[in-house]
Amino acid sequence: MLFSFGKPKPVTADLSFLAVDMHSHLLPGIDDGLQTVADTVAYMQALQAMGYKKFICTPHILNGVHNNSPETILPQLAIVREALKQHGVNVEVAAAAEYMIDDVFEQYIKEGKPLLTFGDQYILVEMSYMAEATNLYSVLYDLTIKGLQPILAHPERYNYFHKQFDQYYEIKNRNTLFQVNILSLSGYYGKQVKQTAERLIKEKMVEFIGTDMHHANHLKATQDYTTSAEFYKLTKDIKLLNNTL
């Protein structure tokens, strides 16, 4: 006797368990992310349909490349909020930044210049993909001394740590939280990045998951991957802090 069970039921993207995307480049025209307000509105609508209720936009601050500051970021936030209101898009939007760990940023901290934070004094930082920041630990210390909670963006993408996994434990021991990209889990950046992201999650070293959304390819890859059962199986047993924001 033949039995027919039909086709597997497709998974629908539902990121409501995250609720908040705390790493994206959706503010228009100030870094290598989206460039127009119209695109920002469209992308936020698309991500809202996937379950997001709030966006904390984090433009790059990188000396000589993306010379952003509160003075360039916050006016763009106001423009986006007004555009969303005009289009009837009911979603919350805030802004912080993704700070490159370098000598300029370290000096910025020491001088007490204003930093863009979110949530419980969280601050998002990143390193070059080419080499570990030589001042990584001193910057993490300086931020902690100021009462800030550093979050290292996409640690899985720092290839120089892939064969030195103990370095991740060392960074975690320096009062640092980890944020993994959905794109990394999807395999968008390659097999090693995917495997490292999965290991970080399985070892319960990840507190946040972000889109790190920049452009159309990122949106499509995110939409495709979050309709896979793999993503939900991987994340179902970990305690994430996105929805506390």
From TrEMBL:
Q: Which protein family is named in the record?
A: Belongs to the metallo-dependent hydrolases superfamily. CpsB/CapC family.
**Class in the EC hierarchy, top level:** hydrolase
Reaction catalyzed: O-phospho-L-tyrosyl-[protein] + H2O = L-tyrosyl-[protein] + phosphate
**Keywords carried by this UniProt record:** Hydrolase
Its protein name is protein-tyrosine-phosphatase
* One Pfam family hit: CpsB_CapC
| InterPro entries attached to this UniProt entry | Caps_polysacc_synth_CpsB/CapC, Pol/histidinol_Pase-like
UniProt source species:
Parasediminibacterium paludis
Specify the taxonomic lineage: Bacteria, Pseudomonadati, Bacteroidota, Chitinophagia, Chitinophagales
Q: Does the keyword Hydrolase apply?
A: yes
Q: Which domain of life is it from?
A: Bacteria
Under Enzyme Commission nomenclature, its number is: 3.1.3.48
**Is-annotated flag, keyword Ribosomal protein?**
no
